[in-house]
Design a protein that fits this description.
The complex is a heterodimer of chains A (122) and B (109). By secondary structure, chain A is mostly beta strands. In chain A, the strands form two sheets. In chain A, strands 2, 4, 5, 6, 9, 10 and 11 form a seven-stranded mixed beta sheet that branches. In chain A, strands 1-3-8-7 form a four-stranded antiparallel beta sheet, with no helix packed on it. By secondary structure, chain B is an all-beta fold. The radius of gyration of chain B is 13 Å and the shape is globular. Classes of the chains: A mainly beta (122), B mainly beta (109). At the A-B interface, strand 5 and strand 9 of A face strand 3, strand 7 and strand 8 of B.
Chain lengths: 122, 109
């Protein structure tokens, strides 16, 4: 059974750093496009970042230069390092699985974790 | 960057048909995916590849995509369908390729 579990959220002061983790089970993160999607309170979904094929990454303009996505295949875990956090980063952060790398299909997010709440406030 | 436009809200009576649109420039040339999100829960994919249903999604949920509009259709609407719905595409020409629509709140009257 495919499962994703986020951890590492919490309350952080403006300008601070936080690292989120997404532990996967039931599949290998190395074989899939792995994503972070966030949702600010009362707002819609905002895609944040994706990692695939080991070193390929993309970021939303709103986090580029501040956030870094990475993964540890041995732990089957994806990370999101968040630096220089501001109030605009307050959100629930979801880990979501995309398609298998090298597959012929299009890009949809078939499994999601329950999310980790990040609150940036003094 | 590519923009997807959804109506903020749609209201429908129980047993009727709800249609939620997702507009984008020549969206018919892309694959559109739809997610349902209930309050306090993570999103769940309900349609992929324009019109395919994941296992467990009832047949009364369907999708279509042509021209500049994709549509999510829910027939015989039930109270349990009340949720936010988001469309999503992959914009291969962009450095931030995953695009979501702004979401539509479906209210069952």
């Amino acid at each position: 059974e495919v499962q994703l579990e986020e951890s590492g959220g919490g309350l952080i002061q403006p300008g601070g750093s936080l690292r989120l983790s997404c532990a996967a089970s039931g599949f290998s993160v190395s074989r899939y496009y792995m994503n972070w999607v966030r949702q600010a309170p009362g707002k819609g979904l905002e895609w944040v970042s994706v990692i695939y094929s080991g070193v390929s990454t993309h970021y939303a303009d709103s986090v580029k230069g501040r956030f870094t996505i990475s993964r540890d295949n041995s732990k089957n875990t994806v990370y999101l390092q968040m630096n220089s956090l501001g109030a605009q980063d307050t959100a629930v952060y979801y880990c979501a699985r995309g398609p298998e790398v090298g597959g012929s299909g299009s890009f949809h997010l078939d499994y999601w974790g329950r999310g980790a709440l990040v609150t940036v406030s003094s | 960057s590519y923009v997807l436009t959804q109506p903020p809200s749609v209201s429908v009576a129980p047993g009727k048909t709800a249609r939620i649109t997702c507009g984008g420039n020549n969206i018919g040339s892309k694959s559109v995916h739809w997610y349902q999100q209930k309050p306090g829960q993570a999103p769940v994919m309900v349609i992929y590849y324009d019109s395919d249903r994941p296992s467990g999604i009832p047949e009364r949920v369907s999708g279509s995509n042509s021209g500049n509009t994709a549509t999510l259709t829910i027939s015989r609407v039930e109270a349990g369908d009340e949720a936010d719905y988001y469309c999503q595409v992959w914009d291969s020409s962009s450095d931030h390729p995953v695009v979501f629509g702004g979401g539509t709140k479906l209210t069952v009257l």
